[in-house]
Design goal:
A two-stranded antiparallel ribbon has the order 1-2. By secondary structure, it is mainly α. Helix 1 runs parallel beside helix 3, helix 3 crosses helix 4 and helix 3 packs antiparallel against helix 8. The radius of gyration is 23 Å and the shape is elongated. It has one domain. The model has no long low-confidence stretch (mean pLDDT 77). It is built from eight helices and two strands, in the order αααββααααα.
Length: 252
């Protein structure tokens, strides 16, 4: 009995698996620590096997040296793509951090080892809500679809401009801060105006000790307006999911 091995398919599937596993380790929602590393590796290899016939159709087996270099390149590509997706969804977490800062909740800051988030109440609440919405709305499927289509933009063992990922990361950081300000901006303005009003009240009537009253006032304002902002998170997460998919497909 003759046993033939398609080395083109085997090597191409291995390279695709390296990219996908590296992506899953970094990108939300798959990077959540509650998912065991074995599960992440199995998911990455399963996706690679499913995408193998498509991504390896034009791939040809390489020699040992070029194949090792291709493995390193695919690892870096997967990490870069995962980091870009992480930057997109970090806007929600950054918006929660702004609310904690201006609302006076930063004294209750703590580290969550599961989600690897260091923040106060609204930082962790917004991060967990975005994670839940990704699974509840099926947004993770859109991210996986974008990952599979990334092979069209960056083929296996193909040449690409090394400056492009760096430029995308720099632009992604700026876009993350802009998105976080757009999400939390109205509440930040309200809290800032509350501080200004309390300062004017202190100048007019120093005996009232307005800043002592300011703590419960700011907490009440934060809870009320953050509740309205919380209701808008589904549409925000949906928009960020589309942005993440466009980044993976090379459109962003």
């Amino acid at each position: 009995m003759d046993l033939s091995i398609d080395f083109d398919w085997l090597e191409g599937t291995m390279l695709a698996g390296v990219r996908m596993v590296a992506f899953i380790v970094v990108a939300p929602p798959f990077s959540y620590r509650a998912f065991p590393a074995t599960t992440k590796a199995m998911l990455g290899m399963g996706l690679a096997l499913a995408a193998g016939p498509h991504v390896t159709s034009e791939y040809h087996a390489l020699a040992t040296g070029p194949f090792v270099m291709a493995l390193v390149v695919e690892l870096l590509v997967g990490l870069a793509l995962g980091f870009l997706v992480y930057l997109v969804f970090a806007a929600v977490q950054s918006a929660g951090a702004l609310i904690d800062l201006f609302g006076g909740f930063t004294l209750a800051q703590a580290y969550d080892p599961q989600s690897m988030v260091n923040g106060a109440q609204f930082t962790r609440l917004f991060q967990m809500t975005a994670l839940a919405l990704l699974f509840a709305s099926g947004g993770y499927q859109l991210i996986i679809g974008g990952l599979l289509r990334s092979f069209d933009a960056i083929p296996l063992a193909g040449a690409f401009d090394l400056t492009a990922p760096v430029a995308a990361m720099v632009g992604g950081v700026g876009q993350m801060f802009l998105s976080s300000l757009q999400i939390a901006g109205p509440l930040v303005v309200v809290l800032f105006l509350a501080d200004v009003g309390l300062g004017l009240l202190t100048r007019v009537a120093p005996a009232l000790n307005a800043f002592q009253m300011g703590f419960p006032i700011k907490i009440a304002l934060t809870v009320v307006f953050a509740g309205a902002l919380f209701m808008a998170l589904p549409s925000v997460v949906s928009s960020l999911t589309n942005d993440a998919a466009n980044v993976l497909m090379g459109r962003g």
